[in-house]
Amino acid sequence: MTLATLYTICWIWIAVGVATFILLQFVTAPYGRHTKSGWGPQISNKAGWVLMEVPSFLIILYFYLSSDQSSFASMLSILWLVHYFNRTFIFPMRIRTKGKKMPFIIVASAIFFNLINAGLNGYYLARFETYSETAFSDWKFYLGITFFLTGFIINQISDHKLIHLRKPKETGYKIPKGFLFKYVSCPNLFGELLQWGGFAIMAWNLPALTFLVWTCANLIPRATKHHQWYKSQFSDYPAERKALFPWLF
Predict the structure, then answer these.
(1) Does the reported pTM lie above 0.85?
(2) Residues 123 and 142 reside in one and the same domain
(3) Cα gap 1→38, rounded to integer Å
(4) Per-residue DSSP letters for 7-42?
(5) Domain of 106?
(6) Domain boundary among 100, 134, 168
(7) Residue range 27-85, pLDDT digits in tens
(8) Is residue 173 part of a domain?
């Protein structure tokens, strides 16, 4: 595949991401608290998480091990692998969703999404990257790594609070409190957006931007739906909280 062909695929995929963002303003994906019947066969929530996320981990791992990447490209690959190792193998084992299921169509669509996004980024880093050692002293690295690590920490703390919101054997939903939940309904999603925004700044290439566009297309509507759900379920839900971005939205 030539670089021109790769970029053409990226632009097409960006257009699909924008269309998906528009569609998700009107359709609520049936997962988690939004799960409902009528979306076909369902599988275990934990198994679904593993199946959804493992393509992103394995594809980047393959390109990382099978190519001679520069130090900077290797750093980008490792950051990706750390995130998806947690998301694929650790997070599903931590969540307290015994007996919960998700529609297989959601799993299948996420697998397709991750195959393309990881494929585009992995192929670029393996075949076309031209980073030099001076990339580590560039402003894009300092700004990007700050965003990425800050987002990763926010995501981890927020996930921990959500996982431990209910006591063992408790069911039902509660209002999360503390940390950035004081300001937004979905700080875990805010952290993930920061991560991949930082990654795109560091990588400074079209495949990384493509992944950021798709991250926004998925997470912004999800945060909006979560925020609306909280407000509809809890009459005492804090009115000052925003959905995703503190003080803004």
Answers:
(1) yes
(2) no
(3) 40
(4) HHHHHHHHHHHHHHHHHTTT-----GGG--SSS--E
(5) 25-32+41-134
(6) 134
(7) 776 665 556 566 678 888 888 889 999 999 999 999 999 999 999 999 999 999 999 99
(8) yes
